[in-house]
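Lecture 7 notes: from sequence to structure.
We start with the chain below.
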Amino acid sequence: MDDITALILDDHASFRRAFARLDDAKDPQQMRSIWEPLALHLEIHAEAEERILYPHLIRRGGEDAEDESLDAIRDHNKIRDAIAESRQHEVGTDRWWTAVWSARRENTEHLAEEEDEGLPDFRRHAGDELRAGLGADWLAFYAEHPSGKGLTFRDKDPERYVAKYSQ
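Predicted C-alpha cells for the same chain:
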C-alpha cells in the first residue's frame, strides 16, 4: 500500500509541473485549461491534508508538530484566498495573474515547509502501518470526491483546528 507521505509528494510534483505549464501558456484559453484543474487540485489537496494528515501529525508528531500544523493551515488559507481572488478576474488579465502568482508563491513556500519539516516529522514518529493506512484513506478521499464533489473549500481557524486535534 502507498505511504501517505509519498502520495502527498506526488501531488507536490504535480503542482510544480502544472505551474511550469502555466508559465508556457500563450492565451487565456490555455491559461484557463491549466489553471482551473490546478486550482481545484490545490483545494482538494489542502482539504485532504486537513482531514487525513494533520490530525495525526498533531497527535503523533514531535515537539514542533503543532507549530508545523498551524503554519500549514495558515498556508492553505492563503492559497484558497488567492484562488478565490483569481476567480474574480478575467483569465489572463494583470489582476488574474497577480492572484495566480500569489497562490503560486504561497504554495511554493508551503511545499518547502511541509517537505522539510512536517513530512519528515511525521515519518519519524508514525509507523509504517499508520502511514500505509492513511495512504489508503488518502486514495479513498480522492475517489470519494472526484473533481471536489461534496467538498466545501473554506478557510479554517488555525488555532481552533490545532486545539481540536490536540485533545
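Points to note: The mean pLDDT is 96. The two ends are 29 Å apart (CA to CA).
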